[in-house]
Fold each of these.
Amino acid sequence: MNHHAVAGQTGGRIMAVALIVAAIALAIATSQISYAFSSDPLGPRFFPYALALALGLCAIWYLVSPGAADAPPDRIGVLNLVGAAVLSVVTVGLMPYLGFLISMGVLASGLAWLFNGTPPLALLSGFGQSALWWFVFEKLLGSNLPRGPLGF
Amino acid sequence: MKLKFVGGVAAFVILGSTAFAQPEKTECLAGAKPGGGFDATCRLLSNSLQATKITASPMAVTYMEGGVGAVAYNHVVGTRPADPGLVVAASSGSALLLAQKKFGSYDETAVRWVGALGADYGVIAVAADSPVKTLKELIVEYGKNPAGFAIGGGGAVGSQDWMKAALIAKAGGADPKKMRYAALEGGGAVTTALQGGHIKIAAGDASEMVKLAEAGKLRILAVMSEKRLPGYLANVPTAKEEGLDIVWPIWRGVYVGPKVSDADYNWWVETLRKLQATSEFKKEQEARGLYPYESLGADYDKQVREDVKRFKTLATEAGL
Amino acid sequence: MSLDYLWHGFGVALLPQNLMYGLIGCFLGTMIGCLPAIGPINGIALLLPIAYTAGLPPESTLILLASVYYGAEYGGRISSILLNVPGDAGAVMTTIDGNPMARAGKATEALVISGVSSFYGGMIAVVLITFLAPVFGLIAIKFGPAEYFVLMVFAFATLSSMVGHEPVKTLLGCIFGLTLTTIGIDATSGAYRFTFGSPELHDGIEFIVLVIGLFSISEVLLLLEQHAAGVLRPLKVTGSYPTWAMLRSIWWTAVRSTGIGFVVGVLPGTGASVASAVAYTTEKRINDRTGTFGKGDIRGVAAPEAANNAAATGAFVPMLTLGVPGSGTTAVMLGALMLYNIQPGPQLFTEQPALVGGLVASMYVGNILLLVMNLPLVRVFVSALLLPNWILIPGIMLLSILGVYTAYSSVMSVFIMFGIGAVGYLLRKLGFDMAPIVLGFVLGKVMETNLRNALAISGGEIGILFESPLTKLLWAMAIAIVLVPWFISRRRAKQAQPAA
């Protein structure tokens, strides 16, 4: 428990520093908003500036007292998370070229495998679900899902 | 007149020769959520095509929300420039955004403008119990005391409604930048705010106000059309009659991608021409609060470019 | 107002074919609500052309579409409770207590209680529409920019109930949500804020993208981590139904939440998501004496569900009395009326009594149908939890991607959802609640736009925010919701002392 709390505090402090940086970035980006004029006295920059200030102050408060948090994932956990993230980004990125059915079939199979599905079953369930939803959205609901070279 | 006749014959010939050019699958893309003006344009087209059986298979209506049509515009030019079956809904608001360079890197020449399907017209309205009875009076009163008249419209600074308001303010000798203008969320919010007395003047479109005016909930002072509009609005003067030279049609139309072939482009133009002559189309048009507005093919293309030019001038004059 | 139109309406709504369309609509609506991928507005947009092509008369079309709409508010709770993934915008708050109940093996109980609360909310709201629609129409007119702004202040005041033992995290979450609302075209000046030249960002981050990212994607990541650490256990499912005493105990919660939900729903510009959020936080403020909210309190399930159904029903009021849509979904329905050459407007009540009567009567019928249909279906839905994780979780992922892709047809918005999901995962690991983020997001835009519009109208005079009787009432309510529970708890503490 104690160990968890300490680990969580480190994580919280890192997040607090990131938020302080974000607050500064927000303030700078706000100063870049260009507009001819506004019909209201506050203008489009007022809210973002106010939020940047509030974010900065709260982030400092958070830095001082980060409170409790869960333990970070272990090495295998991190590997799994990174694997899932890469798989998702790559398959979604390729979706306009490979089509919905194939790319999402790969994604769903990969995730099924990460959750301990045995390879043949993972492939069956992954492509099965992808085909099912493709059919529902493309054929029944008339949506326009990305098409691959084979037309699906 | 003669020219029109020749055009008609030419159209007939082209139609005869390209009847087979009908795209296999037709789709109308609305660059917004379901329920808005783009959706209505697509539905008008799709329903009347189906009712008149001009196309064999029904036309699908799809949605791509973002930037009041900007995402759809970029999508068509960038991803589906040669799709012969795809038309995209547009309006004079699109021309305004193009004039203000708000459609990304592409300008109005990036697509092929097929034709208009109808138009609505700008109106200026006040509350039913307002002491102001005419547009002339309003302009005078406004000039005396701009702070006393909060104006509401369904768009931000630089939008069509804001432009209409700015023209009124200028006519009264006031600075558009100093207008007390509330940018409300669409026409419904504007009429509601007018009835509640939160704003004193409403800038909007005829279709969203006419029923409320008929029911005595608000008073339309003037219509921004060339001639008086039919129906209830026949009693309402045009802005021109009131001495204010403003005509503000809000046309609704469609465009296709830049790489669509001439044959397919012409097929669409002629299909629209044929469609607009049918009673089914006229019924659908009226149901959506649109008035007939003829502008097809090359005429329409030219008109869009002129509109963009006009809007650029207006925006500069208004100080944008 | 005479109630003749309603008797006439029951004659229309109870015709066998209309009863059937109502039933179909309720079933489809429940399904549409249940799937995170599609909400009521997409469902209705899809059904409308089918109904029109099939040549249904206007009242049947309206009955079909309306039943899809409120059916979706019933269905949205199902995936909120079972998977911690909100099925639609109005069901976000249902995750807070609904999912902990499911994890504790009380999924059936949570689903039945939320179903019954939806019924309470829908039914009370229909009664309000029947007798008071014109009155509420007048209230909607009274709300100008200043009133909307103060309403949002009130909503933020209810948020004080969400402040737990780590107020800084609640505040940061809320600020995060508020900041996201500033992305996109500024509604007042037309300026482009934080769009970085990308047209996908012109309309800002969409609510559905935020919600699916925060809840569904971060949930998948958390489950993956737990699985890798070997601590992921399948949920236990018990089939016990709630007791009558439980259903009675949520009655006043449902009544209060219906009141809030209905009023918020009536106002154009605020919808089921605001309604359920304010109802939940108000209920927590009033009733959370022992800190059970957020850990599986049945009132925490009842409040948002009663409120979102009441809001969906309330959204018909401006449509019927003012001819103005109260939500995106009712906007599509107004479009449906135009197909039939019926111009919506203030005369709808007098010109089309059969249509309006049929619609209102079908709401009575529809709510009963939904309750009857939903209770036995609970067992079917709960059995989804029996699916092994390697089938269930990829399914959640696919539906999340579909939900965003079909709405925006762009890979970019899927990536934005992933980004939000990753942030959500980190924040959840650090002990942040997702609810304040959602609340900040839901309330932020309405608050900023209306404050600025109010000041534009007054020419910069702050006084406009306190001028009208309605703003005064709302300020008083905002102060009361913060102070009254505090006084009560202090009094209790004092009374407890001498005893001790």
Amino acid sequence: MTPKYETHENDVLIIGAGGAGLRAAVEALAQGASVGVVCKSLLGKAHTVMAEGGIAAAMCNVDQADGWRTHFRDTMRGGKFLNNWRMAQLHAQESPDRVRELEQWGALFDRTETGDILQRAFGGHTFKRLCHVGDRTGLEMIRTLQDRGVQQGIDVYMECTITRLLKDGDRIAGAFGYWREQGRFVIFKAKSVIVATGGIGKAWKVTSNSWECTGDGMALAYEAGAELLDMEFVQFHPTGMVWPPGVQGLLVTEAVRGEGGILRNKNGERFMEKYDPKRMELSTRDVVARSIYTEVKEGRGSPHGGAFLDISHKQAEYVKRKLPSMYHQFKELADVDITKGPMEVGPTCHYMMGGIRVEAETGRTSVAGLYAAGEAAAGLHGANRLGGNSLSDLLVFGRRAGLAAAEHARAVGGPAVDSAQVDEAERQLLAPFERTTGENPYTIHGELQDMLQALVGIFRTEEDLVRALGELEKFKARAGLMRVEGSRLFNPGWHLSRDLQHMLVVAEAVTRSALARQESRGAHSRIDFPKTEDAWGKKNHVITRDGAAMRLVEVPVAEMPEELKQILAEDK
Amino acid sequence: MSDVTMRVFRGDRDGGGPVDYRVALTPGMVVLDALHAIQAHQAPDLAVRWNCKAAKCGSCSAEVNGRPRLACKTRMDALPLDKPITVYPLKAFPVIKDLVTDVSWNYKVNAKIPAFTPRPDVKWKMEQRDVDRVQEFRKCIECFLCQDVCHVLRDHGKKEQFGGPRFFVRVASLEMHPLDSVSRTKLLKEELGIGLCNITKCCTEVCPEEIHITDNAIIPLKERVVDEFYDPLTMLVRKIRGAKRD
């Protein structure tokens, strides 16, 4: 390799240091691989930190009647049966062990009276299933995994952004990126690469996601030849803050409803009675989000365009103990005391069910040596994710990807890095500096967010989606001409200019998939096709790169074995 | 609503100074919103760390009107708006650019701390009341405001001898874990220099998670160190034997 680039070499390179990336790292290390973890932020700040409610795992500490079969069935039902059944099975079977492991590495969950891990109720889960630490479960998880990984000896490359996966022929060879701090370029050589970059929320205006969630991994994998699956399924969490403007979209944990919170419209009506009288506030997220949206649209919203969520009927001390960060968040940012009165909440772009298509057991993609796990990967959640199933997803499939990536690295020789690919990646990064005219990336990003919010939101129509595709072409043209000011030294405008390219790829994949699916299912709601159609329930969408164009094909949903069909058929 | 002046440090390792920006106030605005508005419209290369915008990740630490705070949690309407609001990087760490500082030293200190080590054959049962006091420490979001305000680090720069409040909190979370089996008192005394802390409680005052750093973490740890290394009887025995104090 040309000596002009700083180069690091690991058996396994993991992109992303959230729950999935760190769990993968711990496993790959345990397999004897040398492991590098690249993260856009400082270690421990990844978006997993924001996960609040808990980890879904049928531990049976509170409800003895629970078990993996019920968890499997809840997950499949929540996902409207588009899920990869094998992933849903593995997830339900393995998540209790993954939670116990966290405890053995030092995590401290809330306890039952008999001293076991306490579990709480959550939307779509038949039993009390979410292992939690108040409303900061994600922080506990990331800190535990981070400490474990560091102690076991991962190489951490902090504040580094990957802009391209490198290939040696058909196999993966590593990745190219830049250090955010100095703007210097860097090459990571690796036999296996795991994409664990999380979601895409930052492409929408109202989102619970941080600046990091720009779909990097999905776009990088797509560009490297991997497939994207079911990209139309974007989860809008029912409860984000709606006021004040600066915190619009910020997550209000589902644990508020899990602990007994009630939703009302401006007339004081408990409107979930209308939409899902059986499950009420603990219906699945797609249903609750649409219900709130509909109440607002029909003129029954709260003053700032949301619904009222009230937990103040519970003892103030209980609320402060079980929902401490919600208490502080509303008190400090919105001047609302949630122990005394209701919160105002509305839907916020939260989670991507779609993502990189992977093999269930290993997280392997269609590119040799490339793996994906966590939110960046697709399959487990189908058309809609249940709350709490994300953290367990990270643990179960992070571990499996780490295992498979380490095994792959043992079996293959070192790859060669192609300097032509590196040169091209460098040119792409530097181009915005060379222009003397052009738009500011912040302007383009803001308008992209507005457009997706308006045209590719909770409710979709063919007209809007076709318009969105046209708009995306214009955004691509504008992004190709944008200009970055300043130097390469820690320059957020420059960083955004690159992230924007990833968001555009992902946005196009979402829009194309949403346009093609002519039905409503889970998080995908078409006003022009309001029914859930059996025929569509047998099809997944797969997107691949075809030269410069995006190609979408339908593939049949894999047939599940008879014993699993039996589980789904059983009532309760 | 009216405009306000944000006086933001712009510069890097080679120096710099404050630059004024006028920003339009919006209801409920926090300092981080104002910084983002500057980025979007006036200075796209203004460097500031942030992630969650909800006081859960501890990325956006800065000194606002001279006080170490999380920018995402500091309401503009809680500050005097008739004069410029100053935003400076954390003083205890070297500036990289603008509001971004080099906090890598913290990660080096953290790596010295032996991990949670359960007792062999432990039963994984714990009472909530035993877990409560450790959960307080585990609320830490690593914003490093406590490190920034600690005079041992901030004014005396003793990064070689001293770990700082953040890592006393971390050690406390391990030492007081009901099922942990390792002692970290020697590390506290010799490598983390807990004796240098003279309990002025500045760290506790700035903690956005309201962890009682001094009372619940540092003082009990100091007591453990004293018990192990400075117990008069033990010292006497050592003196008689002519052994060097460990």
